[in-house]
Predict the structure.
Amino acid sequence: MSTRHPHPTTTSRRLHATAVAGAIAALSLVASGCGDDEPKLDRATIDRLCSAECRQLQSCEPEFFDYNSIGQCERECQDDSAPILLLAGSALESCLRAELALWECTANLSCADLDRYWESPSGDYPCRQEEDRTERACDFDF
């Protein structure tokens, strides 16, 4: 079976959003606004997504759970994600909001749907709409 995505670790998922945000901020690109149906770009959202992702990782992918506890995973996730909050209100907020919507979608998948997300070679997989939206919102020419 061909793999559509490389299999991530928790940190690599978050670092993708942070790296995209940092690169775009450095280039001072302008992005469009966002709708009201997206996750808020605030600490409570980051904390909620970190909690969901850590519990999902421990349950669905224990071989990648390299933490002593859920609490440690959540703290590291929150620390890794802090730079995202610094970019609220910046020119790349629409990209960050799209990334958060994708993160929210994937963090709330069942184990079976998470496997489908990472392993599906076709266009039929969970969170496809959020992934497409992220690609459009974060499609900047560097």
The two ends are 32 Å apart (CA to CA). The chain is about 60% helix and 0% strand. Confidence is low (pLDDT under 50) at residues 1-36.
